[in-house]
Design a protein that fits this description.
Blueprint lengths: L2 H35 L3 E7 L1 E6 L2 E16 L4 E6 L6 E2 L4 E5 L2 H29 L5 H26 L2 E3 L4 E6 L6 E2 L4 E18 H4 L7 E5 L8 E8 L8 E9 L11 E6 L4 E8 L11 E6 L2 E6 L1 E5 L3 E6 L6 E5 L10 E3 L2
Parallel strand pairs: 1-21
Antiparallel strand pairs: 1-20, 2-15, 3-10, 3-14, 4-6, 4-9, 5-8, 6-7, 8-10, 10-13, 11-12, 11-14, 12-13, 15-19, 16-17, 18-19
Helix pairs in contact: 2-3
Length: about 350
Amino acid sequence: MSKNLKYFAIAVIAFIVIIVILLHNKSQIRAAEYVEKIDAYPVNVYTVGSKHITDHLNLVGTIQANNDVPIVSEALGKVIKVSAQVGDFKKGGSTLIQLDDEVEFAAFKTSEVNYLNAQKDYERYQALSAEKSVTDSQLETAKLALQSAEAQYVTSKKAYEDTKIVTPISGIVTSRNVDLGDYIQKNNTVAEVVDIATLKAMINVSEQDVFNLKVGDKVQITTDVYSGVTFEGKIKTIGSKGDAAHTYPVEVDLSNSKEHPLKAGMFAHILFSPASNSISLIIPRDALLGSIKDAQVYVIQGSVAKLRNLVIGTSSNNTLEVLSGLQEGDIVVINGQNNLKENYKVKIIR
């Protein structure tokens, strides 16, 4: 590259730099002139007021049966009769499964006869003993024979009764694991009966909220199945031991509805009684600058904007509770605050 061409390139670059600087300075001058022309920034405002704050606790839980009992066989044998289908309602004490009881019945009747005979023998020996016609040893032998016969009678009666597998509670049969002709062993689960006349909802509540609840508090329960239908429940128990997530189990009792029946396993939305109901200062969320943790707002004093630091309490969808930093009657900016700085003049639009 020749020297003349090199000097020419340097001169062009220098000229471009000068033009850029001049344009930048001109834009700053125009911006400063524009700012000077603005007498006041337009803003929308809100007058701080107080109102009742109701802090509801709304959690999701699972509905469970009040009583869910597996029916276990205490005898072994062949199924000769089935008296329960899945979905049937059975009263407590009803027979669900009948096992072959021929042998057990025979043993029961034999032990019953032996027991009645032993009773009569003992009564006779007691009468003879009163007349000194038998020895004390003979009377004691008769007594022991009665006790042995009674034990055999009780055992055989229980074995005979166990051939009828019954439900201890009233409820709906939700499963049946045996059929006619099956041979079952002792301790086999043959069916399951669920009592859903009354239900319970189980919820895990955080440690921050659990201390605001009391046993006996009423709650409102809704489900996605019945839109607009509300059920009433009551807190039955509150756990004293938390889990790894620092939540505590809470059990809520509720009655099932014939008109809108609920089923075990359904999700439920539980609205607990208000944890607090106090008067607090409220501002719109739109007034907030920054985050709730480092909350600030602009307050209008006269015609000037002043920046205030706030401490925020509870929050809802569109409002914030102010714990400190504002007083009732303060005027806060809710629109236009992004254009403001400390001591800027403002013009209230609305």
